[in-house]
Design a protein that fits this description.
There is one protein chain. The chain is built from three helices and no strands. It is mainly alpha-helical. It has a domain of 38 residues.
Length: 71
């Protein structure tokens, strides 16, 4: 098994955004979490205007592709 170390701020931020994408995916199928919702965090960070997690997910993935985080 290969160990991956994320040690630059850009790598850490990319991992955080991917984790947020995973939380948004889970929220779009009905899972809840404590604290602020993933949708709230995505809207605050990116300015995406969406009412539901299902609506926000494709927009957020497009944002990540624009940043070069997703292929």
């Amino acid at each position: 098994m290969e160990t991956i170390i994320l040690d630059t701020p850009a790598q850490i931020n990319a991992f955080r955004l991917l984790a947020l994408r995973g939380a948004l995916k889970m929220e779009s199928v009905g899972m809840k979490r404590r604290g602020p919702s993933a949708l709230t965090l995505v809207k605050k960070e990116t300015g995406i205007k969406a009412r539901t997690a299902k609506d926000a997910l494709p927009l957020f993935e497009a944002h990540l592709r624009g940043l070069g985080i997703l292929a």
